[in-house]
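To illustrate the input format used throughout this study, we show a single complete record. The first block contains the structure-token representation of the backbone; no residue identities are included at this stage. The design step must infer an amino acid for every position from geometry alone.
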């Protein structure tokens, strides 16, 4: 398990942080040890020639693989009732602060929200999102997946994804059988000490190793589309992204396949969060350069463009296509047709009918009806823009 190698990999990252970075042309995709040193290059994230080269290569490589297509998704929050205590989140248990409204959707309300998003906004790919609600565990999740599948089938088909707490392998298998297409989970941070500070208490999420092993349980369960990521800004982001790349390389080596989705959440303190100021904040330029660097490292992993960001940043993250792009976004259960309030964090909501046109004017093609296979086109590293042979 990756957790067994965690300490060794932490040491490797420390060594990589002092290793001179190679020339961009010489880097081989999915070889984390070749990409990670760039994160510590003096010029990285400063907007100069290095960043421009990384961003241009990323956009060209993505365009060559995905022809500027941005795969549209919409989240449906099922519950804001949570027993975890993440210091950066509005939904943490017991928080009665600004913007917190506790609610869980009924199955009929879920269907109402889905029908509205499909019929009024044109969505075909729906992501179920759950806080850690003791009354919404895997039984409920399977029921919700099946319900959404039926709704989508009545409307010509579509996909259902999941963002939820870390689950058992048998739970993921049940969800796959129920028709789930993908599952994403963010490690938050790979810094174990920092993780403990940010996740106090004795709840499930406080088990760092259990969370670290989640992707392996997803893959072992037969989940085809797995989403990985860190919440950038919680800890030293250079170390977190280097650890993430090494983790992805490990998954690929041990399971023959790895992540197909890359979370790109950047810390945007929620109005009622305890953790408001971070010494590890990434600048816009550092953030864009980091995601673009990851695109070169793993070209067929789709960045999940987050509506935590303003529109301009979303568009920059999507350059070339090959990303999941969130249109419409409410982090409140019932935040669409039911018009319920509250939020997990501050987010933009880019209304699909309006912002589809804006994406087009940026040279991107919003695709509402897409298939899981669209995320994984054939990729021959030797023919790609950022050259080099695939790792042997
Ligand atoms: S981040 Fe998730 S698990 Fe943590 S408090 Fe918020 S909703 Fe709960």
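Output of the design step:
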């Amino acid at each position: 398990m990756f957790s067994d190698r965690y300490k060794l990999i932490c040491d490797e990252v420390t060594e990589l942080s002092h290793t001179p970075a190679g020339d961009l042309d010489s880097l081989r995709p999915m070889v984390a040890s070749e990409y990670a040193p760039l994160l510590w290059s003096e010029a990285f994230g400063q907007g100069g020639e290095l960043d421009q080269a990384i961003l241009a290569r990323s956009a060209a490589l993505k365009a060559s693989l995905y022809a500027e297509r941005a795969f549209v998704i919409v989240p449906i929050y099922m519950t804001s009732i949570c027993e975890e205590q993440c210091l950066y989140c509005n939904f943490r248990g017991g928080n009665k602060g600004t913007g917190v409204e506790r609610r869980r959707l009924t199955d009929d309300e879920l269907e109402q929200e889905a029908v509205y998003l499909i019929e009024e906004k044109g969505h075909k790919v729906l992501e179920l999102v759950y806080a850690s609600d003791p009354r919404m565990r895997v039984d409920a999740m399977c029921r919700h997946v099946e319900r959404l599948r039926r709704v989508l089938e009545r409307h010509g088909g579509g996909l259902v994804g999941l963002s939820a707490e870390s689950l058992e392998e048998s739970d993921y298998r049940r969800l796959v059988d129920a028709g789930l297409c993908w599952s994403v989970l963010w490690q938050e941070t790979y810094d174990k000490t920092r993780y403990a500070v940010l996740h106090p208490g004795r709840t499930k999420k406080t088990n760092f190793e259990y969370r670290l092993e989640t992707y392996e349980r997803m893959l072992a369960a037969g989940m085809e589309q797995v989403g990985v990521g860190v919440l950038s800004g919680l800890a030293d982001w250079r170390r977190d992204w280097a650890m993430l790349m090494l983790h992805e390389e490990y998954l690929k080596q041990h399971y023959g396949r790895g992540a197909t989705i890359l979370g790109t959440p950047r810390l945007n303190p929620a109005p009622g969060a305890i953790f408001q100021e971070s010494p590890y904040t990434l600048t816009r330029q550092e953030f864009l350069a980091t995601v673009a660097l990851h695109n070169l490292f793993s070209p067929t992993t789709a960045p999940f463009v987050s509506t935590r960001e303003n529109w301009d940043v979303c568009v920059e993250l999507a350059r070339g296509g090959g990303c999941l792009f969130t249109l419409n976004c409410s982090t409140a259960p019932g935040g669409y047709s039911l018009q319920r309030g509250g939020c997990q964090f501050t987010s933009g909501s880019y209304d699909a009918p309006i912002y589809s046109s804006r994406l087009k004017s940026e040279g991107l093609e919003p695709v509402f009806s897409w298939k899981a296979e669209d995320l994984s086109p054939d990729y021959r590293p030797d023919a790609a823009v950022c050259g080099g042979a695939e790792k042997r």
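Structural context for interpreting the output: Confidence is low (pLDDT under 50) at residues 383-392. Residues 237-255 form the longest helix (19 residues).
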